[in-house]
Design goal:
Layout lengths: L3 E9 L2 E6 L4 E6 L11 E8 L2 E7 L5 E6 L2 E7 L3 E6 L7 H14 L3 E5 L5 H10 L1 H5 L3 E4 L7 H7 L3 E5 L6 H8 L3 H12 L9 E7 L2 E5 L44 H7 L5 H19 L1
Parallel strand pairs: 3-5, 8-9, 8-11, 9-10, 11-13
Antiparallel strand pairs: 1-2, 1-4, 1-12, 2-3, 4-5, 6-7, 12-13
Helix pairs in contact: 1-8
Length: 294
């Protein structure tokens, strides 16, 4: 059969769902020993039987968001226009994980925004918004929505873009997807049917069409976000607020840890860098340096 071009709209381990240019759905595997495809990848696919196919190759990517620990990488999404990190006041979000998501987006060259869900919890969400005000000052858009009542701010942000939602478990990403895409549950059922399995659909990434020009990728909830793909030497450049101070430290190889004359830590002492951001940097740096010593 002829090779077709398509778009990976579901990634569930070794099983992939591809939407062809003709809008047909194919349950696929990769050809040979190629590395896996991510949701959002553009691919060449060869149909092998009705509803089935083989991905012959992954076309060049504009970008790739992924997390990495030791020798294992978890692909999240490819060819996206933006990353939206979902947080919520209940259960409590982890600011360290939020920062790791933002660093991964910076490393991939993908714009990022923060979405506070569960805005119907008025007092709690007000406190969360206040806590995240410093991120808005850094240039990250901070949206407030309620998956149960009002997702207009998020819908406007998604218009005309391919977006991936990321965040820890319990933040309400799936509820947001259901509010934005009313037939998402039906689409999930279709994926389960196409792959002849339901167990993968709760742990895989899935792409949904909001309208002709807007798509959203729902990624599995996470509790950790490894960043072993990032170098310790370049980590400080992935914090935008550090950049004006890099190169002004007393020592050229300053790690912004305990070195005297550190311009970054001096900026933090003046309140120009959020304590949580410096703490996140040091946490990631310690992890990367420990990896290097193994």
């Amino acid at each position: 059969m002829n090779v077709l071009q398509g778009w990976v709209t579901g990634s569930f381990g070794h099983q992939l769902l591809v939407e062809t240019a003709q809008h047909t759905q194919l349950a696929c595997v990769m050809r040979g020993k190629q590395s896996g495809a991510a949701c959002g990848d553009r691919v060449d696919v060869r149909p092998t039987s009705p509803g089935q196919g083989v991905i012959e190759r992954i076309l060049p990517r504009d970008n790739l968001l992924y997390r990495s620990v030791a020798h294992r990488s978890k692909l999240i999404a490819a060819n996206v226009d933006q990353v939206v990190v979902v947080v919520a006041p209940l259960p409590s979000y982890h600011e360290t994980l939020l920062n790791r998501c933002l660093v991964a987006a910076e490393a991939a060259g993908i714009p990022a925004a923060i979405c506070i869900n569960k805005s119907d919890l008025t007092e709690a969400v007000t406190a969360t918004a206040r806590a995240l005000a410093g991120y808005a000052a850094l240039g990250y858009d901070v949206l407030q929505v309620s998956a149960r009542h009002d997702v207009r701010a998020l819908r406007e942000r998604l218009s005309g873009r391919v977006t991936v939602l990321v965040g820890q478990s319990g933040m309400g990403k799936s509820s947001l997807i259901n509010a934005l895409v009313p037939d998402a549950a039906s689409a999930t059922g279709d994926i389960s049917l196409a792959l002849d399995s339901g167990r993968h659909t709760t742990t895989g990434a899935r792409m949904y069409r909001i309208d002709e020009n807007s798509r959203i990728i729902d990624s599995p909830g996470m509790q950790t976000f490894g960043l072993h793909q990032v170098s310790a030497a370049g980590l400080d450049h992935l914090f935008p607020e550090f950049r004006p101070h890099i190169g002004h430290c007393r020592f050229d190889n300053c790690r912004h840890h305990l070195e005297p004359g550190c311009a970054v830590r001096e900026a933090a002492a003046r309140g120009e860098i959020l304590p949580a951001r410096l703490a996140a940097y040091l946490d990631i740096l310690g992890e990367l340096e420990a990896k290097r010593m193994r």
